[in-house]
Every structure is written in C-alpha cells, then in structure tokens.
Amino acid sequence: MAPVIKYLHMKEINDLLTILEALSNPYRMKIIAELLHERQYVSQLARNLGISRPLLYLHLQKLEEAGLVKGSLEMSEDGKAMKYYGLIPFHISLTEKLVAEAAAHLPEKTS
C-alpha cells in the first residue's frame, strides 16, 4: 500500500514556517523548557532566564504568534496586574516529505 501524503494548503505552509522560525532561537527554546511544567509570570520567567523583560516580551510575542504559548493577564491579591504565560501543548511531526512538499509550494524568491 502506498504511503498517504497529506497535501498542504498555503496557510498550513505559512504556519509551519512561523513555527519553525519561532523554534529557531535558543532563548525561545529555553522559554518553552521553562514553561513545560507550569505557567509563569513574566518577571519570574525573565529572572529564570537571566534576560530583561523587554527582550523576553519580544521572544514571547514570536512564540505566541506561532501558537506555541498563550498569555493571560491576572490580578494578584494586592491588586497588581500580572502577565502569565503558559505552554500550549503541541506536536510537530517533521519529515523529509513534509519539508519537500512545503518547499515545492514556496514562491521562487524567499527573503
């Protein structure tokens, strides 16, 4: 029996590229590792990673755009707004056939 090949739509190809781009940065991979077992608020996450909050927010934005993390604003007991981030469970089955199919549908010139 011949293997079943799932044909990708352009949106799926763009989503795959967004996810791969988000995962291509070591800090973003460390963020995912930090969020693997529990969600964290931004200040704690920045301290754990040893980076500034503005830099952390840039990385979190990329991960959120890729659909890998989700942020939520919550109020602490003392009325302080706290931004929490949690990991959205994901599984990526990346094969050579999937990459080849996606590449076949890309424009001739890519940036």
Number of helices: 5
**What is the CATH-assigned architecture?**
Orthogonal Bundle
Number of domains: 1
Classified by CATH, the class is: Mainly Alpha
> What Rg do the Cα atoms give?
17 Å
Spatial sequence of strands, sheet with the most strands: 1-3-2
Mean pLDDT: 87
Distance between the termini: 39 Å
Unreliable segments (pLDDT under 50, ≥5 consecutive)? 1-5
Shape: elongated
- Sheet-strand content, in percent, reads 5-15%
> Helicity, in percent?
40-55%
Number of strands: 3
- Write the element-wise H/E pattern from the N-terminal end onward: HHEHHEEH
CATH topology: Arc Repressor Mutant, subunit A
User: What would CATH call the homologous superfamily?
Assistant: Winged helix-like DNA-binding domain superfamily/Winged helix DNA-binding domain
Secondary-structure-based class equals: alpha+beta
Plain-language structure description:
The protein is of the alpha+beta class. It has one domain: Winged helix-like DNA-binding domain superfamily/Winged helix DNA-binding domain (Arc Repressor Mutant, subunit A). The protein is 49% helix and 14% strand. It is built from five helices and three strands. Strands 1-3-2 form a three-stranded antiparallel sheet. Helix 1 packs antiparallel against helix 4. The longest helix has 14 residues. The protein is elongated and about 55 Å long. It starts with 9 loop residues before the first helix and ends in a 7-residue tail after the last helix.
